[in-house]
């Protein structure tokens, strides 16, 4: 049994790696920070291969896939991604385009490549990491919210195709709310004291993935909040999100 995890050097990706290792999976860990991956390997119970690579480019996604395609991979976790805080007209375009490359193009590319292999085998799991942001407009983090909306809708579209074709391949989307990770530091927002622990989110996600839950939302409060948000018009959702985001500045 083997799993490939992108963005495995910290946060949710790191904790999912530990959770899958505890369940007997050998791992292929992908991230830019080799030292962080090496440190993680010391904490794992199973074998792990390190691939230190920036996968924000399509070229490197193809390079990664070609490197591991002969491995008998059972699970792919597309976790790599980042956010950026600020008004849309004030944030730096080059950072936003890098975000789009990683949050959207990388997820799109790796999902397509591994899905073809999994369909041929008629087995496998693909877990794409979205966000509670996937369901909402995101003033002050507009590009990030939009990118995560893409991840959710891509996943759900693929899910319906697989269901209609009666293919025994899982595809799902993890949509956490605030989580205690390095995300806030990178996005330059204040830490959310109500955030969930990343180890809890990882265990919850893996449990639900193996139960083939398509949309995975850790935390009762977040699930209830999204349920109530469905009843609001989109302009009011944007207004509420602006108020919540402005408190993190």
Structural write-up:
- By secondary structure, the protein is α/β, with parallel strands linked by helices.
- It has one domain (2-246): Rossmann fold, CATH 3.40.50.
- It contains 9 helices and 9 strands.
- Strands 3-2-1-4-5-6-9 form a 7-stranded parallel sheet, sandwiched between helices. A two-stranded parallel sheet has the order 7-8.
Which CATH architecture is right? Answer: 3-Layer(aba) Sandwich
Number of helices: 9
| Largest sheet composition | 7 strands, parallel
Question: Using only CA atoms, what is the Rg?
Answer: 17 Å
The H-level CATH homologous superfamily, spelled out, is NAD(P)-binding Rossmann-like Domain
Computed structural class: alpha/beta
Topology as a string of helices (H) and strands (E): EHEHEHEHEHEEHEHEHH
Helix content percent band = 40-55%
Distance separating the two termini: 43 Å
Low-confidence stretches: none
Give the number of domains.
1
The averaged pLDDT comes out at 93
- Strand-residue proportion: 5-15%
CATH domain class name? Alpha Beta
The fold-level CATH name is Rossmann fold
Across the major sheet, the strand order is 3-2-1-4-5-6-9
Total number of beta strands: 9
How would you sum up the global shape? globular
Give a brief description.
The protein has 249 residues and is of the alpha/beta class. It is 50% helix and 14% strand.
Task: Provide keyphrases for this structure.
9 strands, Rossmann fold, 249 residues, 14% strand, alpha/beta, single chain, seven-stranded parallel β-sheet, two-stranded parallel sheet, globular
Architecture blueprint of SSEs:
Layout: E1 2-6, H1 11-22, E2 26-31, H2 34-41, E3 48-52, H3 58-68, E4 75-78, H4 93-121, E5 125-129, H5 142-165, E6 170-174, E7 179-180, H6 183-187, E8 196-197, H7 198-210, E9 215-216, H8 220-229, H9 234-246
Parallel strand pairs: 1-2, 1-4, 2-3, 4-5, 5-6, 6-9, 7-8
């Amino acid at each position: 049994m083997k799993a490939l995890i992108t963005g495995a050097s910290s946060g949710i990706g790191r904790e999912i790696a530990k959770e899958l290792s505890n369940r007997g999976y050998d791992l292929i860990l992908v991230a830019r920070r080799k030292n962080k991956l090496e440190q993680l390997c010391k904490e794992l119970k199973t074998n792990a291969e390190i691939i230190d690579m920036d996968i924000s480019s399509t070229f490197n996604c193809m390079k990664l896939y070609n490197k591991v395609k002969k491995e008998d991979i059972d699970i792919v976790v597309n976790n790599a991604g980042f956010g950026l805080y600020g008004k849309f007209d004030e944030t730096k375009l080059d950072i936003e385009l890098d975000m789009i490359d990683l949050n959207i193009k990388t997820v799109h590319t790796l999902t397509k490549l591994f899905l073809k292999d999994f369909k041929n085998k008629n087995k496998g799991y693909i877990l794409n990491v979205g966000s509670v942001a996937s369901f909402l407009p995101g003033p002050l983090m507009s590009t990030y919210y939009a990118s995560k909306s893409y991840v959710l809708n891509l996943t759900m579209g693929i899910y319906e195709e697989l269901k209609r074709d009666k293919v025994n391949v899982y595809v799902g989307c993890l949509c956490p709310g605030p989580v205690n990770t390095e995300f806030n530091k990178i996005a330059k927002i204040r830490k959310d004291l109500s955030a969930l622990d990343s180890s809890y989110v990882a265990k919850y996600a893996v449990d639900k993935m193996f139960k083939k839950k398509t949309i995975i939302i850790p935390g009762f409060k977040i699930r209830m909040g999204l349920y109530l948000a469905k009843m609001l018009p989109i302009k009011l959702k944007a207004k509420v999100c602006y108020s919540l985001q402005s408190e993190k500045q």
